[in-house]
């Protein structure tokens, strides 16, 4: 029964831990950090390698990742749980969070490719960089105004991304504060 409650990520992690690859890649703390950094970097580079041609490979890749991770929030809850443990390597959080955010930005950039986003001259933007830039500006809720949504699809995507960005930064600040307080609490008990 307990095995059924485990997430796909934990089941995969337990399986991976017993492979020859894991014995080499995760033999030390430094190797573990390099392996995680490389994996997350490669997932983001997949956007740059495929989105110039079609947004679909990256979108499908991300949704497979969401299925594997059992949703958008399960990995975050796992990180929060691990951070509240007495022995915790904060470097993994420092490596993971920026790339997770970059992957969300890239996912929304691919979604914007289905709508119409125009620059200040009224010309529809093209290319992965312009969509990535617009997605970054929208997620961070800066809204420079030099590139704007031009149809309902792009407006809906921008609205959802702005809400996620606003809420995400608020939740992230709360999580960091909560982890810091939990760490202080654990230190005071010892």
Description:
The chain is mainly alpha-helical. The protein has a single domain (43-189), classed as Orthogonal Bundle (Helix Hairpins). The protein has 9 helices and 2 strands. The chain has helices at 2-5, 8-17, 20-25, 29-50, 56-68, 74-83, 90-112, 128-139, 152-189; strands at 117-119, 147-149. Strands 1-2 form a two-stranded antiparallel ribbon. The two termini are 34 Å apart.
Throw out a few tags for this protein.
190 residues; 9 helices; mainly alpha; two-stranded antiparallel sheet; Helix Hairpins
Structural class: mainly alpha
Radius of gyration: 19 Å
CATH architecture verdict: Orthogonal Bundle
**Average predicted confidence as pLDDT:** 84
Count of discrete alpha- or pi-helical segments spanning 4 or more residues = 9
Largest sheet: 2 strands, antiparallel
For the termini, the CA-CA separation is 34 Å
Short description:
By secondary structure, this protein is mainly alpha-helical.
Please outline the helices and strands:
Blueprint: H1 2-5, H2 8-17, H3 20-25, H4 29-50, H5 56-68, H6 74-83, H7 90-112, E1 117-119, H8 128-139, E2 147-149, H9 152-189
Helix pairs in contact: 4-7, 5-7, 7-8
């Amino acid at each position: 029964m307990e095995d059924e409650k485990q997430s796909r990520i934990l089941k995969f992690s337990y399986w991976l831990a017993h492979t020859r690859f894991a014995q080499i890649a995760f033999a030390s703390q430094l190797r573990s950090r390099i392996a995680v950094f490389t994996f997350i970097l490669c997932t983001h580079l997949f956007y740059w390698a495929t989105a110039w041609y079609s947004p679909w490979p990256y979108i499908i890749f991300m949704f497979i990742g969401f299925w594997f991770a059992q949703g958008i929030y399960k990995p975050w809850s796992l990180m929060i749980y691990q951070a509240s443990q007495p022995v915790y390597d904060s470097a993994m959080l420092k490596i993971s969070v920026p790339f997770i955010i970059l992957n969300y930005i890239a996912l929304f950039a691919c979604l914007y490719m289905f709508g119409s986003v125009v620059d200040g001259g009224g010309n529809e933007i093209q290319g992965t960089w312009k969509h990535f830039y617009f997605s970054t500006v929208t997620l961070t809720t800066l809204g420079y105004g030099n590139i704007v949504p031009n149809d309902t699809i792009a407006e809906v995507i921008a609205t959802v991304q702005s809400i996620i960005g606003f809420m995400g930064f608020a939740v992230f600040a709360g999580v960091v504060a909560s982890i810091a307080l939990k760490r202080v609490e654990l230190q005071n008990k010892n």
